[in-house]
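Please, structure for the following, as tokens.
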Amino acid sequence: MQKAPITKYKPFPPVSLPNRQWPSRSITQAPTWCSVDLRDGNQALITPMSIQSSLEMFDLLVATGFKEIEVGFPSANDIYFNFLRQLIEENRIPDDVTIQVLVQAREHLIRRTFESLEGAKQAIVHLYNSTNPLQRRVTFGKSKKEITAIAIDGTKLVKELVPSIPDTKIHFQYSPESFSDTELEYSLEVCEAVMDIWQPTAQEPIILNLPATVELATPNIHADQIEWFCTHMKNRDMAIISLHTHNDRGTGMAATELGLLAGADRVEGTLFGNGERTGNVDIVTAALNLYSQGIDPQLDFSNLNQIREVYERCTRMTVHERHPYAGELVFTAFSGSHQDAIKKGMDQMDPSEGALWQVPYLAIDPNDLGRNYKAIIRINNQSGKGGVAYIMEHEFGFEMPKKMHPEFSRVVNEIADKTGIEITAAEIYNIFKAEYIDPKKPLELETFRTKNLSTGEIECWATVKIQNESTQLNGTGNGPIDAFVNALHKEYPCDFELVSYSEHSLGSGANSQAVSYIQISNSENSTWYGAGIHTNIEIASIKALLSALNRFQK
């Protein structure tokens, strides 16, 4: 990197817009979305999609709800041309979907493009040429007047060729490529020259696509550029203003949202932001950002995992684990405090349909995207008691008493500290079993039965292995547990008191199991929990008591 003073780069000039309005506006409805996955996204792939992959991607975009889909650059090569012909000839394009084709403002390319469209019901012809000073000087060596002439001549030819495919409704789109680095006055001059040729109306507007072909400035400057253009152009009602942002500075999403505030009507982008260099704007994120604000995005991402799977298979690209909304880990919390807050939020959610979503750390309900709560919380050595308790309840149905949470969490975290890696839900369950359910020493229940006495008390008979020797126990008390404790004390004196007891079903039906939790303490006020499982709740309770005693005497 160059040391100060830095002379290789210069600040991007601000836009003179003293009465800018976009900062005080809000987005209240979804824009028109146009997917450019099959062109801009495809051109960015190391291995471009085959025709078969392109067909699968097209079907995915249609199913997601896109009504405008750019299907490629049919004049560029036979693959794009043949793909478009297959879409048309096999009647794969729904009546409410408009395909879009991109073409440079060059005569032979425009003519070839119209050949590719024959038989389509409707299409957007997207004409472009570069307008910024660097391209004018370095790439083309042409003046502003000459660049404008390219746009005008291309528009004239498109208009001339429209009658050659009379059964196709043609819409026209023009892009001053590299609008982001073109003088605003000149961008407007070129676009209005194109409009003068095309002669749009309010009923049949032109699409003016103002691309941030290379992102060169902060998003607020992009918004200023869009608002300046919208407020200075003639016949604003005869044009649909479209955005096509890239992500060179990492702010393509912000630039798009601010561009909508600035007056744009339409957004071109790709699923998950695939595109040249750092990519196009990610329409999945843009749409779900609207959804999270209570705005209908007009796109269906209710099965986002499937959309991601098709995208990854067709493009051979991967969605990052932390990608907004779609990443594998975005609905996962490792931090203990986050886990605890999420669990409390889930527990306190209003279950009624249409209730406001209010769960800490989760801006959107994963279920709305076809994802589930099972993956929200995972456990490692950074996790806390809330996460462990959440896993046990939502994965396996164990509603442990709140005071039991830190005790079991310590057990899990000790193992996580030793391994240093994530502990899966299945492993957590196995730890629970190994700690509370499976131990049989020094005490193991073999049989247990009770009888109600005329005095109102309960008498119990039990067979318990004490240090591997079967022992017959008999006792009475005010309930089954009290009777068993009294019986046990006769044969196995032990310093403990019952502190708390709770139980619940682990399922439904006649054969469902019950789980009991019992907390005991000793004379030093140290406490231990035990847990027991059985189809008979009394036996589950006795097992829970012996579980606590076995843990106490480790």
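The two ends are 62 Å apart (CA to CA). The CA atoms of residues 76 and 508 lie 63 Å apart.
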